Amino acid sequence: MWELYILRPDAAKALDDLMIRRVLPRYVKIVRSDAIANFQIAKKIEFKPRKNHSVADLWKIHIKLMKEFRKNREKFDKGITKIGKLREPKHSLLDLKIRLTESIIGYCELCERKCHVNRMKGEKGACKVGTECLISSEFMHMGEEAHISPSHTIFFMGCTLNCQFCQNWSISQWHEAGYQTTPEELAIRIDRRRKEGSRNVNWVGGDPTPNLLCILKTLKSCEVNIPVIWNSNFYMSEKTMNILNGIVDMHLSDFKYGNNECALRLSKIPKYFNACSRNHLIATKNTEMTIRHLVLPNHIECCTKPILKWIHDNIRDKVIVNIMDQYRPEYNAHEYPDINRSLTREEIKEAINYAEELNINYIT
Q1: What does the pLDDT look like over 80-103, one tens digit per residue?
Q2: Which residues are CB-neighbours of 104 under 8 A, at least 6 positions away?
Q3: Rounded distance between C-alpha atoms, residue 294 and residue 296, angstroms
Q4: CB under 8 Å to 341, separation ≥6 — which residues?
Q5: Rounded (10°) angle between helices 183-196 and 212-221
Q6: Which alpha helices (H) appear in the chain, and where do they start and end?
Q7: Among the four given CATH numbers 3.40.50.300, 3.20.20.70, 3.30.750.24, 3.90.550.10, the one describing domain 2-363
Q8: SS3 180
């Protein structure tokens, strides 16, 4: 893709970077078609549905099939088995994940808000997302991290948080209508973008979490082998984390706050740090990860340093951290004196120096 070398020469070389290859080895291999994306493997694991299966039964079957998934992935990665030699069953592990997701949103617990509305019957919770596929845009993004660009980003409407400084506030807070598409149409676009040179499909928003059902149905129709990136605020429930296991190839998390108080005040969300830190631990057990941390003005001591210290103490060698300095006051930020300005050079330097002191794998 010649545009990559002109617009992003750093991205053209990124997959050969030693840190990227060490921390994200499987992602790099899938980009280069040397490994199979998780969702394509999930489509090869047979699920035998029965009419009398309860939701509890389905979760037990999910545990069993995930063990089979891991065994098969190991064989594919080692070259012992070729995925083309396995038939695609009538019903697969991916179909099971779709059924479980439908059960979750019938008493919605996709995120930690746990609104318990029946979205299958048209009810909507705090995110205001229904069951249809509503997106704001989809395009080949050249401005993501070097190892991610060019990225096929799909921006969904709605979000589980209400960040008062959101740079995508028109999407997340429904100040635009978005447009409706179908899983089949999205799958065609993913296939086309991959042929055009996309390194991944990047589910974002807003936040992808309320749109999990649409995403799974899209991947069911997707034929191309491509890494799946879950670009999220990481306020998912544990049930959602279980569904994502075996689907996502790299998590791209947005780790915002180092405590619950700042999260409640600036994003109107309870118990943020508890859920976000828990989900990072779960994610790093199952797949590879890049973490984004947007440094906020006046929040070095309360948020940036605690987050970096937590990463150091828990998942340091398993992740790459992007320390982001592009904060600007957007949306309602002018109503909060502590974040009603851009970052100073001293603040971003302090954040970077602390990451170096902790010997974290970081990029800027």
Answers
A1: 888 877 788 999 999 999 999 999
A2: 110, 237, 239, 240, 243
A3: 6
A4: 297, 329
A5: 60
A6: 2-7, 9-14, 18-23, 25-31, 38-42, 55-78, 93-105, 169-172, 183-196, 212-221, 238-244, 260-267, 272-286, 305-314, 345-357
A7: 3.20.20.70
A8: strand
Give the pTM: 0.97
Residues 50, 98: Cα–Cα separation, whole Å: 15
Question: What tens digit of pLDDT does each residue of 3-57 get?
Answer: 665 678 999 999 999 999 999 999 999 999 999 999 999 999 999 999 899 999 9
Distances (CA, A) of 37 to 26, 41, 180, 284: 9, 7, 27, 17
CA distances from 327 to 5, 170, 293, 343 (A): 27, 17, 10, 7
Which tokens in the block code for residue 260?
Answer: 């619950």
Q: What is the pLDDT of residues 338-354, one digit of tens each?
A: 999 999 999 999 999 99
CB-based contacts of 221-225 (< 8 A; 24+ apart in sequence): 221/183, 221/184, 221/186, 221/187, 222/39, 222/187, 222/190, 222/191, 223/187, 223/191, 224/190, 224/191, 224/194, 224/195, 225/30, 225/33, 225/36, 225/37, 225/40
Note the Cα 312 to chain centre separation in Å: 21
Q: Are 201 and 154 in contact (CB under 8 A)?
A: yes
Among positive and negative, which fits the CA dihedral 324, 282, 216, 272? negative
Q: Is the pLDDT of residue 250 over 60?
A: yes
Cα separation, 215 vs 232, whole angstroms: 13
